[in-house]
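Thread: quick sanity check before group meeting

JM: Hey all, I'm pulling together slides for Thursday and realized we never actually wrote out the predicted structure for the chain we discussed last week. Dropping the sequence here so it's in one place. If anyone has concerns about the input, flag it before I start.
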Amino acid sequence: MSRSHTGTPATPATSTRTHRARVASAALLTLVLAALSACVGIPTSGPVEVGVERVSDQGAVEPLGDPPPQDGAPEDIVRGFLGASAAGFSRDPEGSETADDFRNAREYLSGETRRSWSPRERVVVYSTASSPDIRLEGESQVRVDVRVAARIDAEGRYAQAGPDAQETLMFDLVQDSEGQWRISGLEDGVVLSEPNFEAIYRSATLYFLSQDAQYLVPETRWFPLRNLATSIVRALLAGPSDWLRDAVRTAIPEGAALQPDAVSVDEDGVAAVSLAAGGLPVEPDDRALMQAQLEASLRIARVRTVEVSAAGVGLGADAVQLARGQDWGGSLEAVQGDALVELSGGSLVPVEDVGSLAGLDARDPARDGSGALRVMLSGPDRLVTVPTAEDPSQLLLTGTDLVAPSVDRLGWVWTASGDAQGGLVAVDPGGDVVDVEAEWLQGRTVRSVRVALDASRVAVVSSGSDGVHVDVASVVRDDSGTPQVLGAAWRTGVTLVDATRVVWVDESTLGVLGRSGSTTTAVYHLVPLSGQVQARPAIVDSIDIAGGKGDGVLYVATSRGELYARSGSSWTTVGTGVRDPSFPG
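JM (edit): ok, ran it. Output follows.
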């Protein structure tokens, strides 16, 4: 575990032998942690890889835990405990699932505390920008101050911390019958450096079902590499988080439980999921959907196929292919003069069957995946259909300072008025308007909105008295697919200090145009729903972005009419005189 002590110096040893042993131990620990920090780190560039991509952990450096030092001062005991806690997640050198399991860490604890401490209750990840400050408070209490990068709860939900987030942990200590200091009071959970967290944990995507059972809807969690498949199945059986629950469903019966309490994966990538009696759906269609959920969720754990049974009875499911919200398809489109153009073969050409935009003050075109439903803003206050070669533009909605529209796969067009607070507006091609309220938007002004391809989630940028937020919420619909209300917000991108535009880069990652850290200009940020924000290189005067085909296909438009495309680690000009680029959605 990468830690250094910047607080009160440790109490001197009571003998030369003890002093030398402690110095040698500290030197060895420093070398090990230096190697760990050099080998394992949070990536600052490259593609965002979450979800169902298969992850190899070959060569991963795992932290080692030492037993308590003889005659260690209270600060030494706490420092050693923090390192041993990180080692508790590790596997043994042979790669089996037998591991330390926090045995070494518990040696630092006293009496009942050794039994009651719950290390998996939460994880506090501290930033490598500063080391924990470990100080002795009085004679028997140690204070640890850390700069927090993220927090992960017992169910694997990852919450990135704000830029100035800090946390103070207090440790009470007592001396045992041999005069050795041990920890008698502490909070549940563990503290990990960013490199240790990256070595120990992996992001895993749990897949649930859209309300119409046509799409797999993802929720990213983070679990230790050890027993990864078991952690994924347990979480999938428990169901989605509260913020997503009302917009999705699952084919897994309520109350389904592992029996025995583990998932085995053989060398051929076959996972055996054994459930207690009553763990299988009754209907064949639901059995197929359950199989699809499990197989999609377990791919990250090197699983190729899943064999499911309950009380010895096999699932017997037929194969079913469900869509994922990775890519709508279609080319980039933008406004150029009085025409709607698309990027084709490296050139901007007019979109077929679209009429002239002359006189419409065309802004922010949006469309569904097929291009059958196309809309745009006509000036700041009118939402209209895009004219075709045969039909003129039709008015759908009027409002003050409408935000750029988003079209979902069920045919609803989403927007919001800049002077309205408390919700969004959805309108269908026939002009039927629905006010989609959200309690968390009360008192806030919507700046940008984008519905995910699965139509179960929506990303919203809003501003209020507490600044700018980037939130994702579930879309609750009635049986006809009409949106009714937004669920609770899941906030992400907390390191952003400003934001103006949001798009979906893939099913679990947002693209946000905004500022973070010390940047003074708007930058394209990749914002995972569960992970660390990454900023792409800045382009002067950026005012708009487009995305929807993964991290390798990103576009930025400037106030000068320049269109840039992502090219490796930089940007390349692909068009001039254009504005409002977009992909379907």
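AS: nice. Residues 1-61, 92-98 have pLDDT under 50 and may be disordered. Residues 146 and 202 are 22 Å apart (CA to CA).
JM: adding both to the slides.
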